[in-house]
């Protein structure tokens, strides 16, 4: 029996809006993953907004990237079927909010394992990338946990700030801003998985 090889990675192409984020771009079929991971009608106490922009080498906000996030819930579990108003996967294109923002409605996750800090996994798909890139989003208020996180420790200390989201609003809803810089002096740290 012949062993089949892995399908090679491909760029996101011109059809991601139709196939991966159709509702955001006003197509008439449902998205498998949306930017809303936490249902605000079921849980307002823990709700946060994670927003940001994707910047190119010239500091211009990219209008055709797609961001995908994965995270555990507040109990440290991945929910791949909507469960009590939470779903662990979200997707959003950067071309649907004025100013080219991405914006996710979610919660601060629990740590996935002991010794790790709460984190959100983020994948970036966009033109010019031969393959998507992975990064992690950490929260500034977990300073001690961040210092002990085994993945964050892999990153040079002077570059760790590219992985830490900043709270820009505390009420009525907590809003965190996490900007991705694809190249240049502020380049975000990306991981091999």
UniProtKB/TrEMBL annotation:
UniProt cross-references to Gene3D superfamilies, sorted A to Z: Aromatic compound dioxygenase
UniProt superkingdom: Bacteria
Entry keywords, A to Z: Dioxygenase, Oxidoreductase
Keyword Lipid biosynthesis: no
Record flagged with keyword DNA damage: no
InterPro entries xref list: Intradiol_dOase_C, Intradiol_dOase_core, Intradiol_RC_Dioxygenase, Protocat_dOase_a
Domain Intradiol ring-cleavage dioxygenases: residue ranges: 50-78
Pfam family, one: Dioxygenase_C
GO molecular function, one term: ferric iron binding
NCBIfam families assigned: protocat_alph
Family: Belongs to the intradiol ring-cleavage dioxygenase family.
Name recorded for this polypeptide: Protocatechuate 3,4-dioxygenase subunit alpha
Source organism per UniProt: Nitritalea halalkaliphila LW7
């Amino acid at each position: 029996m012949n062993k089949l090889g892995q399908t090679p990675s491909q760029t996101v192409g011109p059809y991601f809006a139709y196939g991966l984020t159709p509702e955001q771009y006003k197509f008439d079929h449902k998205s498998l993953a949306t930017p809303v991971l936490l249902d605000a009608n079921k849980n307002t106490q823990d709700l946060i907004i994670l927003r940001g922009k994707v910047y190119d080498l010239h500091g211009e906000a990219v209008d055709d990237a797609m961001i995908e996030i994965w995270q555990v819930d507040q109990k440290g579990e991945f929910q791949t079927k909507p469960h009590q108003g939470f779903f662990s996967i979200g997707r959003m294109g950067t071309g649907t909010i004025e100013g080219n923002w991405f914006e996710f409605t979610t919660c601060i996750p629990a740590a996935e394992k002991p010794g790790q800090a709460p984190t959100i996994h983020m994948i970036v798909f966009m033109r010019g990338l031969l393959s998507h890139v992975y990064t992690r989003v950490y929260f500034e208020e977990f300073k001690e946990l961040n210092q002990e996180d085994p993945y964050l420790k892999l990153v040079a200390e002077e570059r760790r700030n590219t992985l830490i989201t900043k709270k820009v609003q505390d009420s009525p809803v907590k809003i965190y801003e996490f900007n991705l810089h694809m190249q240049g002096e502020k380049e975000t740290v990306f991981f091999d998985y």
